[in-house]
Design goal:
This protein has 5 helices and 5 strands, in the order βαβαβαβαβα. Strands 2-1-3-4-5 form a 5-stranded parallel sheet, with helices on both faces. Helix 3 links the parallel strand 3 and strand 4. Helix 3 runs parallel beside helix 4. The mean pLDDT is 91.
Length: 131
């Protein structure tokens, strides 16, 4: 990695919803190395509960999940008065990623496969604005 993004203020909680274990682990490691607290889940039912129970500062959502998809969870987050402030980044190889972003009001997208520097650049834009 050419750049190091280290967030040393209060640890921010990043919710990662990814059903592919290897990808989830890779994303978690990248974010934890940068000083972020990662809550990694593989299903949206547990994610909804976590959003209600914990302080979540940023959500990274895969679109192609078993059961309810990431777009539906994005719609849910952006439709709740107490959650809509949470930045949502869609992380997917879906060809319609930009259109889906607009439909569910996500804040940004990261297209799979991704370059780690590009991934962290996008994530850092939202973590830095969290204060």
């Amino acid at each position: 990695m050419d750049r190091i993004y280290l967030f040393l203020t209060m640890r921010k909680n990043v919710l990662v919803i990814e059903d592919e274990p290897i990808i989830a682990e890779m994303i978690s490691i990248i974010l934890e190395i940068q000083g972020l607290n990662v809550i990694s889940l593989s299903d949206t039912n547990r994610a909804r509960q976590t959003l209600q129970d914990k302080e979540v500062d940023l959500a990274l959502l895969d679109l192609n999940l078993k059961g309810e998809g990431g777009q539906d969870l994005c719609d849910y987050i952006k439709g709740q008065d107490d959650l809509k402030h949470i930045p949502v980044i869609l992380v997917s190889a879906n060809m319609d990623l930009e259109e889906i972003k607009e439909q569910c009001h996500a804040d940004d997208v990261i297209r799979k496969p991704f370059n780690i520097d590009d991934f962290m650049h996008t994530v850092s834009q939202y973590v830095e604005t969290l204060g």
